[in-house]
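Is this the right way to post structure tokens for a design question? Let me know if I should format differently. Anyway, here goes:
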């Protein structure tokens, strides 16, 4: 991903290798007094937002969060620790090796629905919200 503001800023991040959780931290070049980026698709946004978008996926595990999952985690006051993210990522790697596409991962009283191939969390449900929930569009489950 490359972000520009008339050549004043440039953020480069390596391609994410979802199968092994490899990501390289972005290299950031900063010119003082520049606060707005022009993104490749033509929209403008602030530095903090762009930096968050680039580094959001860099959590050490290769695990990504969809916008929906981010909203659900925030709404339900669920904070995934680095250890939990690593367990979820490992569970998704195992699920992918068995041919599972969309997995339900049960971890520490949380239910996480994620795509095993892309290592992307689709939604999350906490222990208090698990009663009477039905999980659809999954083809495997992993207890991590």
């Amino acid at each position: 991903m490359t972000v520009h503001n008339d050549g004043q800023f440039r953020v480069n991040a390596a391609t994410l290798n979802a199968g092994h959780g490899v990501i390289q931290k972005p290299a950031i070049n900063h010119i003082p007094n520049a606060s707005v980026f022009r993104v490749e698709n033509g929209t403008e946004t602030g530095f903090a937002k762009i930096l968050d978008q680039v580094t959001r996926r860099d959590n050490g595990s290769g695990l990504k969060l969809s916008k929906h999952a981010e909203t659900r985690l925030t709404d339900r006051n669920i904070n995934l620790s680095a250890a939990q993210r690593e367990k979820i990522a490992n569970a998704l790697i195992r699920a992918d090796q068995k041919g599972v596409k969309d997995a339900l991962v049960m971890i520490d009283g949380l239910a996480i629905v994620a795509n095993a191939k892309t290592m992307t969390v689709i939604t999350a449900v906490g222990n208090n919200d698990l009663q009477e929930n039905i999980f659809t569009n999954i083809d495997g489950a992993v207890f991590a």
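Format looks fine. Someone answered above. Worth noting: The first strand starts at residue 3 and ends at 4. The radius of gyration is 17 Å.
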